[in-house]
Amino acid sequence: MGRRRRRRGCLLGLLLWVSWIAVSVDGARMDGVSKHTLQVKRHLKRLNKPPVNTIQSPDGDVIDCVNISEQPAFDHPYLKDHKIQMRPSFHPEGLFDESKVATTASTERASPINQPWHGNGRCLENTIPIRRTKEEDVLRASSVKRYGRKTSRSIPKPRSTDPSLINESGHQHAIAYVEGDKFYGAKATINVWTPTIDQPNEFSLSQLWVLGGSFGEDLNSIEAGWQVSPDLYGDNNTRLFTYWTSDAYQATGCYNLLCSGFIQVNSEIAMGASISPVSTYRNPQYDINILIWKDPKEGHWWMQFGNDYVLGYWPSFLFSYLADSASMIEWGGEVVNTEADGQHTSTQMGSGHFPEEGFGKASYFRNIQVVDASNNLKAPQGIGTFTEQSNCYDIQTGSNADWGRYFYYGGPGKNPNCP
Ligand SMILES: *[C@@H]1O[C@H](CO)[C@@H](O)[C@H](O)[C@H]1NC(C)=O
Ligand SMILES: *[C@@H]1O[C@H](CO)[C@@H](O)[C@H](O)[C@H]1NC(C)=O
Ligand SMILES: *[C@@H]1O[C@H](CO)[C@@H](O)[C@H](O)[C@H]1NC(C)=O
After folding, report:
1. 41 in any annotated domain
2. Which of 48, 94, 153, 367 is within CB 3.0–4.6 Å of 404 for a Cys-Cys bond?
3. Ramachandran sector of residue 35 (left: φ over 0; alpha: ψ -120 to 50; beta: rest)
4. Closest-lying ligand to the alpha carbon of 125?
5. Which numbered atom of ligand 3 lies nearest the CA of 167?
6. Where on the tree of life does the source sit, at the highest rank (predicted)?
7. Is the pLDDT of residue 103 over 60?
8. What is the total count of domains within the chain?
């Protein structure tokens, strides 16, 4: 029996080797263009797992319901024998549990945030919804390898003394942060908008960052929020996203499920899919709840969307610093400015309006909280704020009984004070 399996293994190895030779010879004969096409096709095959069923979303997306045990995470060699954990062992407790807080008159609660594809079907139990990557999605990326990845140097580093680090990359932020403690998670209720994007390769996002390490080459980061990114998705829709990296955006990590790492257990929410409704100026406001926390028993980092959806987890082994705890939490907005010659982009952050305008006009984060070592949610102490150019995008913090710690943030980008 053992010998037979070994012989079969050898045969398989030989076959793989022969086919590799065949591909290499083939590759040498091909010109650059068809080689790239082949590379794209291979990458799509890796990303798009065979679906159990498929749902066409009205916004143009295709949602594949993929067997939970065949999701991209399991391509990771470390996850070969991983037993999926269907629910966290612990859930953080806290004051601002949305289900316990009285409805605030100012915030629309009647229609909770939804994903448009739900109108055309649902995924079965034990399958997970994955936004299908199309060929044109990959072709928009600068290279197959860069598809689904952030560029390095996009991490907001408050109080940096190196101005080139801050301004050179073109990434601009308006964030609130806490540091100098051990954090085991973070939560926020994030106002949802559709900012206008000036250039197709720019983006605008609003998110929280759970950071470990000291902004070196080995920075660990777990991120989640909403984004508008024509480059990544091919449209201007507001989409739910996650991101992770364990080496400052260099070789590891990606958006959503675009690489092996995050293990999804939820069959209702697709990462990277659009969310609706979105807020508009002087009209009802909509917001989403995001909670990321470290399960004290298994050590994995879990993510919850809204009050009902535990999406899944990033296994602890993906990280170095975050395998223990986070050293910094950030909340806020980021845009990328690709304008040359010192001109500023008119890509909006948040609602595209400055914090001074307040509710219904400016974009907000409310009930921002951190998870402490006893797995309790609590209001962060000693919040700092940071923005590269407050005349372009700004932030203002506050606190009250209804909203806990909150801030308004964002702006229009290019304007008379930000030329
Ligand atoms: C998912 O895959 C597992 C193992 O490959 C299999 O046992 C199970 O029947 C599949 N489930 C569905 C819904 O196809
Ligand atoms: C996205 O919005 C920009 C600015 O409004 C517009 O120029 C562009 O055509 C839109 N892109 C898509 C794919 O709809
Ligand atoms: C970034 O560059 C802008 C424009 O050159 C400048 O006004 C601003 O002070 C710089 N910000 C920082 C933090 O260095």
Report:
1. no
2. 367
3. alpha
4. 1
5. 1
6. Eukaryota
7. no
8. 1
- 7 falls within a domain: no
The proportion of the chain whose per-residue pLDDT surpasses 70, expressed as a percent, equals: 84
The strands making up 53-56's β-sheet, listed across from edge to edge, are 53-56, 62-67, 127-131
Q: Is the CB of 52 under 6 A from ligand 1?
A: yes
| Alpha-carbon span 236 to 257, nearest angstrom | 20
Question: pLDDT tens digits for 189-222?
Answer: 999 999 999 999 999 999 999 999 887 778 899 9
From the CB of 199, is ligand 2 less than 6 Å away?
no
Single-letter code of the amino acid located at 177: Y
For 125-137, what is each residue's pLDDT tens digit? 999 999 999 999 9
Length of the chain in terms of residues written: 419
Phi-psi region of 60 (alpha: psi -120 to 50; beta: other; left: phi over 0): left
Q: Is residue 278 situated within a structural domain? A: yes
Q: Is the pLDDT of residue 6 over 50?
A: no
Q: Which residues are catalytic?
A: 223, 334
Reported confidence tier of residue 13, pLDDT bands at 50, 70, 90: very low
Residue 338 in domain: yes
The answer to whether the CB of 236 is under 6 A from ligand 2 is yes
Taking the CA of 126 as reference, the closest ligand is 1
